[in-house]
Design goal:
With 215 residues, the protein is an alpha+beta fold. The protein has seven helices and 13 strands. Helix content is 25%, strand content 27%. The mean pLDDT is 97. The chain binds zinc ion (2 copies). The site of one zinc ion has 8 residues, from helix 2.
């Protein structure tokens, strides 16, 4: 599997285009906007979009999902159903951040902890990681040992928890109990900023290092 990271929207959200190299099928994770640029990247790669995957329903991650699904005739999988209220708020989220109008959508499949998402010949494991939003999910590719973590964890930081139904203690628990057990060698693509590894964050992240968590 190949990963192309395309920063989209004024929030520079890392949309990940996942490409199965044997079938050239692609999954687009978190198409927040800039759909024409995403589709040009898919086309340059000689790939065909099979599905859209959403980590959580904030507008910079999910704002383009409804339109893209309609244009391509592909399904949307995720997030967890606890993010329904954020999907319902997409038009208002757009207005308050000065984004173009975002469509509400109904996912073809809600994701649960322990589910798997497939495209081409690739399989991703799903981890429900609430805290930033209650329905946030993380995707893990066991073969590549790479995780797509949305706004759960960043290089040197963690997701905000001051939004409705955000919760700091829950976010810390998600990171400690769902992400760290995957292994220090796992690299991750965060929703914003640069990639890192779980091991590097356990050493030096001021919010969730082993020292900060008293381990
Ligand atoms: Zn977010
Ligand atoms: Zn974000």
């Amino acid at each position: 599997m190949q990963i192309k990271i395309v920063p989209v929207t004024p929030f520079q959200q890392n949309c990940s285009i996942l490409i199965c190299e044997s079938t050239r099928k692609a999954a687009i994770v978190d198409p927040g906007g800039d759909l024409d640029r995403l589709l040009a990247t898919v086309e340059q790669a000689g790939a065909e979009v099979e599905k859209i995957i959403i980590t959580h329903a904030h507008i910079d991650h999910a704002g383009g999902a409804g339109e893209l699904a309609r244009r391509l005739g592909v399904p949307i999988e995720g997030p967890h159903r606890e993010d329904q209220f954020w999907i319902d708020l997409l038009p208002e989220q757009g207005a308050s951040f000065g984004f173009p109008p975002a469509e509400r959508f109904t996912p073809h499949r809600w994701l649960e902890n322990g589910d798997q998402v497939t495209f081409g010949e690739q399989t991703l494991d799903v981890y429900h990681c609430p805290g930033h939003t209650p329905g946030h999910v993380v995707l893990f590719h066991p073969g590549l040992r790479v995780a797509i973590v949305g706004d759960v964890l960043f290089q040197g930081s963690i997701g905000r928890t001051d939004f409705p139904r955000g919760d700091h203690a829950t976010l810390l628990r998600s990171i400690r109990e769902r992400l760290w057990p995957l292994g220090d060698d796992v690299s991750f693509v965060p929703g914003h900023g640069r990639t890192s590894t779980f091991g590097a964050e356990r050493r030096s992240n001021p919010f969730v290092s082993d020292a900060a968590l008293g381990r």
